[in-house]
Amino acid sequence: EAGVAQSPRYKIIEKRQSVAFWCNPISGHATLYWYQQILGQGPKLLIQFQNNGVVDDSQLPKDRFSAERLKGVDSTLKIQPAKLEDSAVYLCASSIERLANHEQFFGPGTRLTVL
Amino acid sequence: KQEVTQIPAALSVPEGENLVLNCSFTDSAIYNLQWFRQDPGKGLTSLLLIQSSQREQTSGRLNASLDKSSGRSTLYIAASQPGDSATYLCAVRRGGGGADGLTFGKGTHLIIQP
Fold first, then answer.
1. Contact B32 A45 (CB under 8 A)
2. Could you say which residues from 30 to 59 on chain A have a Cβ atom under 8 Å away from some Cβ of chain B?
3. B10-14 and B108-113 beta bridge pairing
4. Span A33-77, pLDDT tens digits
5. Which stretch of DSSP H or E encloses residue B44?
């Protein structure tokens, strides 16, 4: 079974530019999460989707961050415009409710550097 | 608001030692607790998941315990090896459905000296 796929793996941009990250969850996983991990910190949840609907976006900086999950499969996270403090690893995870423990499976992440 | 704390922040021990990593959380109303391993530049690898009704889980040389009422978990690593060097993250899940994102600690950076 293929794992969670993310692209690109690395991205370097200048502040005020825009950037987008892509995530393809494990096949059949209805729930998708985006986390932000700043260097030296644990990951922080940005947004959670159930199919193509948003379940929790309480920690998403909505003035500059947006995310969508059209058709309930792939998801895109966008930052516009980027700030220096957005430099981080962006992790995507997915889970399926038929697993009793609702375990989350993580992708390799996208490392963003904002100059 | 749930807060997760991991102690120590960093640990360096000689190969072969047994060691304990600690995790505490402020809100005991959790669904489960998960321990992850993160290698430099890589994503998260799940090590052990303990449901709120369980007391411990074991996998090979790893044993994780959970005391939900006191808000504590420990990860025990037996006979440590250089390949165990990584950052270990503890995370709690608040619900079994709906809004159930994980809340993570900052991690313990572990170095096993050959």
1. no
2. 33, 35, 40-45, 48, 55-56
3. parallel
4. 999 999 999 999 999 999 889 999 999 999 999 999 988 899 999
5. strand B44-51
